[in-house]
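=== RUN LOG ===
request id: a7f3
mode: sequence -> structure
chains: 1
length: 101
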Amino acid sequence: EILLDTELFLHISCMFFPVLGLLCVLRYTIQGVGFTNLAMFSGVAEMIARILVSVLAVPAFGYIAVCFGDPTAWMAADLFLVPTFIVIYRRLKSRGVVMNN
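=== RESULT ===
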């Protein structure tokens, strides 16, 4: 039973690795151009999502909700990071920092 639960957890997590990849690229890009506080807020979004899953979803859905805890946190961070990246990119582009090819 433990192996089946582990397999379920890994299958669910692996399906969301592209979401995690996007999170890493955006977070470290935002951090790299000097907006470290905004990059940190994506971690706060992840923490809030994990708390909400733990408090609301786990009691209602059990172990399957635990399996979706990390992916939910990654999506919450991406929901913050994507618009943040767009705003920062436009701001840097208007200042002439970002060049067009």
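=== NOTES ===
The chain has a mean pLDDT of 95.
Helices lie at 2-15, 17-32, 36-61, 63-67, 69-94.
=== END ===
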